[in-house]
């Protein structure tokens, strides 16, 4: 067996920042620290922090008054910020700046009187947060059929935005359809699908042709991980999205397979390494690294944590 280990894979700059933020918030304030939604969509990350005293909630009213709350990487609506204020919570914000960028675009277009078509997945934390910035101005579209069904009052004031973790290919198809229906539609000069989503998808696109089987490490509720599995699944080769090696079955592999391994932006590297170890032990696999691009993006910590992080590092 040969393993092709894709790069870039795994944690992106937004996830690194969110995880560091929660670690530091726990150190600075002590447990319990409440986290609105999963800090990132990964079972291992969530379980590890639960053991350290993080409490993940889906509603602000689950949090006792005067507590500490951290908003997850996926962002929140203004209504949630207000609820946190009303409960006198100390709120720290680990929203990825690339999600904030989409929020700001939504606010800008809504203020100018535009209707905004948001391309995204209904019910995803990020989509809920973005729509909450201008609920009266945003309509959600999930696919090309949704574009057909759109009813727009004023086509001269129309813009589209996207969720950050979409399939680049699917988003392009939907955008093409939108542009056919509304040729004058505006959009931000730079697209909203983030660099990490694009790079991980490009690596799978370039490398999966060499593989018999593709293993994507990530949780089922991770949007960008799901998109990697879909991209790898060409109807012929097998593609699995798993949290770790415990979810794999030896019956799905053979000694002569070439296995491409990658990981979604919220999946920790140790699950990649334990999956490699699992395949090496059972199939004598050798590992070849295939890097299509270097990443060096970093995001700053929330303001409330910066001085504390500097103190912690220097002590
Ligand atoms: S996947 Fe993209 S948008 Fe999401 S946290 Fe990472 S960098 Fe930010």
TrEMBL record:
What protein name does the entry list?
A: 4-hydroxy-3-methylbut-2-enyl diphosphate reductase
| Binding, (2E)-4-hydroxy-3-methylbut-2-enyl diphosphate | 41, 74, 124, 164, 222-224, 266
Q: Which UniProt keywords apply?
A: 4Fe-4S, Iron, Iron-sulfur, Isoprene biosynthesis, Metal-binding, Oxidoreductase
The lineage's top-level taxon is: Bacteria
Biological process (GO), any one: dimethylallyl diphosphate biosynthetic process
Q: What class of enzyme is it?
A: oxidoreductase
Q: Which purpose does this protein serve, as stated in its record?
A: Catalyzes the conversion of 1-hydroxy-2-methyl-2-(E)-butenyl 4-diphosphate (HMBPP) into a mixture of isopentenyl diphosphate (IPP) and dimethylallyl diphosphate (DMAPP). Acts in the terminal step of the DOXP/MEP pathway for isoprenoid precursor biosynthesis.
What pathway is it annotated to?
A: Isoprenoid biosynthesis; isopentenyl diphosphate biosynthesis via DXP pathway; isopentenyl diphosphate from 1-deoxy-D-xylulose 5-phosphate: step 6/6; Isoprenoid biosynthesis; dimethylallyl diphosphate biosynthesis; dimethylallyl diphosphate from (2E)-4-hydroxy-3-methylbutenyl diphosphate: step 1/1
Catalytic-site annotation from UniProt: 126 (proton donor)
Q: Which residues bind dimethylallyl diphosphate?
A: 41, 74, 124, 222-224, 266
Q: What is its EC number?
A: 1.17.7.4
Report residues binding [4Fe-4S] cluster.
12, 96, 194
Q: Which organism is it from?
A: Rubripirellula tenax
């Amino acid at each position: 067996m040969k393993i092709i280990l894709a790069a870039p894979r795994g944690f992106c700059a937004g996830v690194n920042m969110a995880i560091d933020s929660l670690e530091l918030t726990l150190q600075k304030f002590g447990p319990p620290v409440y986290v609105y939604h999963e800090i990132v969509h990964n079972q291992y990350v969530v379980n590890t922090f639960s053991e350290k005293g993080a409490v993940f909630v889906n509603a602000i009213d689950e949090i006792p008054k005067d507590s500490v709350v951290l908003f997850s990487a996926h962002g929140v609506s203004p209504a949630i910020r207000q609820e946190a204020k009303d409960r006198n919570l100390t709120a720290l914000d680990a929203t990825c700046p690339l999600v904030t960028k989409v929020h700001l675009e939504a606010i800008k277009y809504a203020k100018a009187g535009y209707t905004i078509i948001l391309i995204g997945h209904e019910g995803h934390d990020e989509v809920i947060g973005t729509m909450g910035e201008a609920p009266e101005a945003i309509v959600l579209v999930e696919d090309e059929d949704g574009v057909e069904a759109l009813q727009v009052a004023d086509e001269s004031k129309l813009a589209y935005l996207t969720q950050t973790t979409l399939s680049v290919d699917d988003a392009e198809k939907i955008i093409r359809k939108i542009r056919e229906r509304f040729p004058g539609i505006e959009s931000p000069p730079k697209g909203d699908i983030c660099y990490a989503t694009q790079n991980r998808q490009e690596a799978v696109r370039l490398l999966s042709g060499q593989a018999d089987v593709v293993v994507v490490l990530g949780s089922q509720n991770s949007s960008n991980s799901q998109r990697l599995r879909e991209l790898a699944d060409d109807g012929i080769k097998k593609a699995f999205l798993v949290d770790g090696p415990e979810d794999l079955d030896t019956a799905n592999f053979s000694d002569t397979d070439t296995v491409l391994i990658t990981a979604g932006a919220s999946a920790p590297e140790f699950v990649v390494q334990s999956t490699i170890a699992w395949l090496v032990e059972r199939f004598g696999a050798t590992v070849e690294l295939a890097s299509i691009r270097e990443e060096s993006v970093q995001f700053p910590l929330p303001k409330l944590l910066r001085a504390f992080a500097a103190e912690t590092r220097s002590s």
